[in-house]
Design goal:
- The protein starts with a strand and ends with a helix.
- With 420 residues, the chain is an alpha/beta fold.
- The chain folds into two domains: 3-235, Rossmann fold (3-Layer(aba) Sandwich), CATH 3.40.50; 242-419, Molybdenum Cofactor Biosythetic Enzyme, Chain A (3-Layer(aba) Sandwich).
- The protein is globular.
- Helix 6 crosses helix 7 and helix 11 crosses helix 12.
- It has helices at residues 10-22, 56-72, 94-104, 153-160, 170-174, 177-189, 202-211, 259-270, 280-284, 289-297, 314-324, 326-346, 357-366, 411-419, and strands at residues 3-7, 27-31, 44-48, 77-81, 110-113, 121-124, 127-130, 133-134, 164-168, 192-197, 217-220, 249-254, 274-277, 306-309, 349-355, 371-379, 382-387, 397-402.
- The strands form two sheets. The protein has a 15-stranded mixed β-sheet, sandwiched between helices.
- The structure holds adenosine-5'-diphosphate.
- Adenosine-5'-diphosphate binds next to helix 11, helix 12 and helix 13.
- Adenosine-5'-diphosphate is lined by residues 255-258, 261, 280, 310, 312, 317, 320-321, 329-330, 333-334, 356-359, 403-404.
């Protein structure tokens, strides 16, 4: 294993894995730290944690446990994947986890860069932009858990760290990998532990990739990953994304209420797709929604793909939440949809699209999936994956886990075409 990655959330892990595969590496994503004795055949392994907003001490502990598995498995370099909007608070968890990883690796300096210009995340003079807006002017300003009100990442990171944080600015990055290396050496010699690295283009990410060769730890969004595989002689090719042949029945389960998912459900219905809507209030009233949905699906699967969805526009979601409470509504729907996903796989579905980050987490748990081999990209950030599940027998199943706002309007049709 050349690259060992620790991601602080599930869909962020897939996003990173997708970029590594696009650049030619064979990648496996694990759900949490793999069992101590397990071995994985891949060029890179991405351990997906759920540590972004938990207590800093717990995030450090889980990250160090993942690190020790990755090192035992031979990881030559470690990549701590954080959000491209640097989601964190003054308590962490980016700073405390990065410092703990660096110390455990015996390193004295790590570059930090959440930029992903293709996805509208750029860093200039240490300031993070989301599209044309400074981070602090973007909707991240109002995030319920990690409101980002300071766009200056040197300051943001410094508030979370004991060690000093400096800047590798865009003029240096534009001068290429040797200049980036020189600047990092300067920072290290002045006692800095971290350097925020600017990036406004893919060229910057490629220079960075070269400059970071051999460094023990990289702290980054998923963008920096496009420049790393070249250090090991990998080139973009379809071979890395090859999965076992797809077979079986096809289904979509959608619990995301994001704008993109609403548009995708609407497009599927407009095309005359077979669809079954779940009503959270009926679940709350004690109806056996799972059995009803599966009974509806059974005779229709052969002519699939079928769609089972709780996806609704925000007014309807608010009305349900007002009746049931936000958490209770979310948990009821996740429970129902993940049981339906399991039932569908038990009935022969082997190509399953799940829409929604939390919904995907619940479905993967219900299917007892421990690892995903990452395959071809459907849309940016969303690849097809192949996984083993006790519900699917020996041949396993193909899964596409789509976080809410990803994917074009025709995603539910395009995804299956991509696999054909
Ligand atoms: P996204 O990636 O779009 O944020 P998630 O699956 O992470 O999607 O989150 C959507 C949440 O909304 C889940 O907890 C889901 O159970 C819940 N949910 C889905 N449909 C409804 C609905 N009709 N009413 C209330 N909550 C819903």
């Amino acid at each position: 294993m050349l690259l060992g990655c620790i991601a602080d959330d599930f869909t962020g892990a897939t996003d990173l894995a997708n970029n590594l595969v696009r650049s030619g590496m064979r990648v496996v994503q694990t759900i949490g730290k793999p069992d101590d004795g397990s071995r994985i055949d891949a060029d890179a392994v991405v351990v997906a944690l759920k540590s972004r907003t938990i207590e800093p001490a717990a995030a450090v502990e889980q990250s160090l446990a993942a690190l020790s598995w990755l090192r035992r498995s031979g990881a030559a370099q470690v990549y701590f994947k954080v959000c491209s909007t640097f989601d964190s608070t003054d308590r962490g968890n980016i700073g405390p986890v990065a410092e703990a990883l660096l110390e455990a690796l015996g390193g004295d300096f790590a570059p930090v860069c959440p930029a992903f210009p293709e996805n509208q995340r750029t860093v200039f003079k240490g300031h993070l932009f989301v599209g044309d807006l400074l981070l602090s002017d973007s909707s991240m300003r109002n995030h319920p858990l990690t409101p980002m009100t300071d766009p200056n990442l040197v300051r943001v990171m410094q508030r979370q760290c004991r060690g000093k944080v400096g800047l590798v600015d865009q003029a240096v990055v534009a001068a290429g990998s040797a200049a980036i290396r020189n600047r990092m050496t300067q920072l290290r010699n002045c006692g800095h532990r971290f350097g925020i690295v600017d990036a406004i283009s893919n060229v910057d990410l490629m220079s960075m990739g070269q400059a970071f060769s051999g460094m023990p730890l990289i702290v980054a969004g998923s963008g920096v990953a496009i420049g790393l595989p070249q250090n090991h002689g990998f080139q973009a090719s379809a071979a890395a994304a090859r999965l076992p042949a797809a077979g079986g029945l096809r289904a979509i389960v959608s619990g995301s209420c994001s704008a993109a998912s609403n548009a995708q459900v609407a497009d599927f219905l407009r095309r005359g797709g077979q669809a079954y809507a779940i009503d959270p209030l009926r679940i709350a009233a004690g109806e056996d929604t799972v059995s009803a949905a599966l009974a509806w699906a059974a005779p229709r699967l052969v002519a699939g793909p079928i769609l089972v969805y709780a996806t609704s526009e925000s007014e309807a979601v608010k009305a349900v939440q007002a009746r049931l409470g936000v958490e209770q509504a979310g948990a009821l729907v996740e429970q129902a949809l993940s049981s339906i996903a399991l039932g569908l796989v038990e009935r022969g579905v082997r190509q399953l699209v799940v829409a929604g980050g939390e919904t995907s987490g619940a479905c993967v748990q219900a299917l007892e999936v421990a690892q995903l081999r990452i395959g071809p990209q459907i849309d940016p950030g969303v690849p097809w994956c192949h996984a083993d599940s006790p519900a699917a027998d020996a041949e396993g199943l193909h899964l596409a886990l789509k976080s809410g706002n990803f994917g074009t309007f025709d995603f539910f049709t395009k995804a299956f075409d991509r696999l054909a």
